């Protein structure tokens, strides 16, 4: 797939300086640029590389004025970084714009789908599945009975969507993610054996939710596990039954959220955080990596540690913790002085 400088400038509303017919077919870092590649310059510390890069086209800010001769064709835009991101998004749309149903795959007679639909080989659509327009389902995807999927959704290879799940518009489900597995519900009997509690609820993903590779979102015991619009989940996250996550909250990898916990809007949660069940976390909360949350959290709190403390208190305490050996020695020395005086 090749693009000329003129075509790229048209997409980005930019201006070409150099050969408008220069063509590229791949992307590169500016310091590793090769002939036929496109790169960008946004960070001033990388400016020296623009004079040595072999990239055929470089996107730069409009105010960039070269101080030496260039071998690369420039496309000048208002914001090089944002424009390059826009181009990446456009490239992905073009690259992933597959349509049609590949064979072998299974589509139930009662399943329905809209225009621009793609179903990769070895995929499965169950009974009464309803899929909107421009949905891309890559190979080896399982979609269970009575699942509803909105428009412009991507389900990457090997993802699984269990029955009754509801996925909104613009969602992205990455490889190996599992939506709607049973919640971890068991009750012990007098013999110490466990009986399974049926998990009869579902999972709801509202619009523009991203679910990372290997992440699991469990169905509710009753009702729904809900991720509100704009939620972003990294890879390898566990969301337990009946959890609710508020709009535009982002959670980093290897975090686990136990059952029935409610997380507010616009929260940022670092990697490897553990959150107990049946608590409420407010809006705009910040939780540092590897923290353990075992209590309700108010709006706008910033937490760190396990069990987590106020972020400022944690840092002050950590300073003392690092100095504990010195403090212990000082105490011992003082005790010796006191003992010598008493003698």
From TrEMBL:
Presence of keyword Lipid biosynthesis: yes
Catalytically driven reaction(s): a UDP-3-O-[(3R)-3-hydroxyacyl]-alpha-D-glucosamine + a (3R)-hydroxyacyl-[ACP] = a UDP-2-N,3-O-bis[(3R)-3-hydroxyacyl]-alpha-D-glucosamine + holo-[ACP] + H(+)
Record-linked Pfam families: Hexapep, LpxD
HAMAP family with a match to the protein in the record: LpxD (MF_00523)
Pathway where this protein functions: Bacterial outer membrane biogenesis; LPS lipid A biosynthesis
Documented EC number(s): 2.3.1.191
Residues at the active site: 241 (proton acceptor)
Summary of subunit composition and partner proteins: Homotrimer.
Protein source organism: Croceitalea marina
Segments passing through the bilayer: none
Cited function: Catalyzes the N-acylation of UDP-3-O-acylglucosamine using 3-hydroxyacyl-ACP as the acyl donor. Is involved in the biosynthesis of lipid A, a phosphorylated glycolipid that anchors the lipopolysaccharide to the outer membrane of the cell.
Family to which the UniProt record says this protein belongs: Belongs to the transferase hexapeptide repeat family. LpxD subfamily.
Keywords: Acyltransferase, Lipid A biosynthesis, Lipid biosynthesis, Lipid metabolism, Repeat, Transferase
Broad enzyme group: transferase
Entry GO MF terms: UDP-3-O-[(3R)-3-hydroxyacyl]-glucosamine N-acyltransferase activity
The UDP-3-O-[3-hydroxymyristoyl] glucosamine N-acyltransferase non-repeat region domain, residue ranges: 23-89
Iron found in the keyword field: no
Domain of life: Bacteria
Protein name: UDP-3-O-acylglucosamine N-acyltransferase
Xref: InterPro entries: Hexapep (IPR001451), LpxD (IPR007691), Trimer_LpxA-like_sf (IPR011004), UDP_GlcNAc_AcTrfase_non-rep (IPR020573)
